[in-house]
Amino acid sequence: MSKSTVDIANLRIKYRERKDVFLEKNIKIKEPITIFKEWLEEAAKTEEIIEPNAGCIATVDKNGFPSNRFVLLKDVFEEGFTFFTNYGSRKAQNIAENPNVAMTFYWLPLRRSIRIEGSAEKISKEKSLEYFHMRPRASQIGALASEQSTKLPSREHLDEIEAKLKAELGEDKPVPLPNWGGYLIRPRLIEFWQGQSDRLHDRIRFRKNAEEEADGVLVHKGEKGWIYERLAP
Q1: Residue of 12, 18, 155, 199 marked catalytic
Q2: What is the pLDDT of residue 2?
């Protein structure tokens, strides 16, 4: 077996300094959706972050086997987080079998990460159709051409399907909605991580609908039904 030329064990980067810590007292509104939006806005303004809304979503099938992949977040509001996909995809099949999902965002230039755990459910067909027709026409046709996660004989076969659809639809005919749409992740846990160079990273976790009571020492009462706590890194 050939040895890797990359010294993986010694790969390290510098994180934030102790003067730049993430403290509870600096959180103005103690509920996670507001914090998420603030961090996302900062990520969007950071030039080095090309896709700030790219998150890795993990699902679990009926046999308990996990899988994950990156998707693009398309909305965030008080109820949760929305992304879109083909309803015949592996992730969609997993969600149909087990709606419990996890989603992670990692913004390296900011030394920040956010973990979300919750349950996923389909949004309305009307909302999916509205967003579908907001997409570039080429993306609409691509979604119609591809039955995501199914087997293909070749790349050329997919290109042929796309070409046929373009010929049938022409320049102006509306692209019909395929087996495709949105999911809303309703969060029950959101954790914010900020890296520190001494490895004493900041971790503040928010939980909702938790049976545990806030004691004001380890567990604190937040807003809008959330509680929060600091975790050891």
Answers
A1: 199
A2: 66
Q: Which long-range contacts (CB under 8 A, 24 or more apart) does 6-14 make?
A: 13/108, 14/197
d(CA 104, CA 189): 12
Please confirm, yes or no, whether 199 is among the known catalytic residues: yes
Which phi and psi (to 5°) does residue 179 adopt?
-75, 75
Beta strands in the chain (DSSP E): 54-60, 66-77, 80-86, 100-107, 112-122, 180-194, 202-208, 220-221, 226-230
CB atoms within 10 A of CB 28: 8
**Strand duo 220-221 + 202-208: pairing:** unpaired
Q: How far apart are the first and last CA of the chain?
A: 35
Those residues of the chain that have pLDDT short of 50 are: none
